[in-house]
Amino acid sequence: MARMPHLLYVAWGFPPARTGGVHRALATANHFVERGWRVTVLTAEREVFERHTGSDPGLEGAVDPRVNVVRLPFRWPAKETDLVRWSAARVLMPRLWWRWRKYLDTRRFPEPAYGPWAGPLGDAAEAVHRRTPVDLVVATVNPYVDAVAGQRLAQRHQVPYVLDYRDAWSLDMFSGRTVHAADSRVGQVEARLIEGAAQVWFVNEAIATWHQNRHPSAATRVRVVPNGYDTPSTFEPRLRRSAPVFGYLGTITHHVPVRELLEAWQMARADGRLPSDAQLRLYGFLGYYRGADDSMARLVSGSEDLGVHYRGPVAKGEVQSVYADCDVLVLAMGSGQYITSGKTYEYAATGLPIVAVHERGNATTATLAEYPLIAGPSGLDPADIAADLGAAAELAAKVSAADIASARSWATRFDRAGVLDPRIEELTP
Asked: How many domains does the chain divide into?
């Protein structure tokens, strides 16, 4: 009987983390198992997420029981808020402590906060390989230190590895600016990682092309692997003709044009493009970490008289219920030609009308250009957003069950299994 190929999957943020990209990590690990692979995951211990980034305990239950999850200790001194755990040096000489901390963080691997994990991660990868030989490593980055496990096994045991980029290390995706020159320490480390990879995955064509231009010798090993969606929507649409509910679901950060959205909402309600009983419900964490970002909290509060309600974070298991209670989904995201979002595909899978609140030129514009029930994007000027909100309200007022079924059918091209299958087949020994 043939031995099952063994995948070592490296993801600092894995369930129950609620960090960026966790759903892609979860789906990838599960899908390799479904395609006949033995899967071992290297990730951080639960306490890191519970204390610092926030966690979704229900998400851990979605991990296929055949996946072997190995949790490694991870210290995050810069995020430590318990003063009892602070050293005397940090209390008495904070500036000196921060300089020393940065040196320690980047001494072995040039990534603040995550660099010290390089040694334990490489050692853990070796231990896994000794127990059960590894046939392939896939590292989801960021953090970019995740790539160290694959590089170690490739150098010492000729195990191929894949880098799965959700973002970009040397490119600011919002501004398009190069943040790490090719001859910088980060640039050189990243070049070695990319040159050694069997494949390099990116979530959209724009980011992939930028990296192909920067690393031409690796261009033929670059693949575009969109996020896709995990769960087809089967809920019955409400088809409500009055009091439409607009819903935004996602992490709310300063990159999301919430201020412009709220100003546009007020304009559209005032001039009648939105019904006076329309509601805007905002769901998600306020900022990237466990504690709410104060500036975001101030921004989303105090607008209840305009029908705007912040409803807080949503567990993965409750997402479909949120969608089922909406008439229009608000796709608000940051600016930049390289920007895309996993919720794009999940939104499309619902078949509901979508109002796009972002720049015309970002990567999502092309993705949803042919979606049957799209309003916008006209730009980020509040007047343009108000017009798109009105157009979305008109879509919601006349949409039929057949229209939604057609939109769901269109979105099946982004089913995560269909996205991942060609890559897994290509990498199966």
From this structure: 2
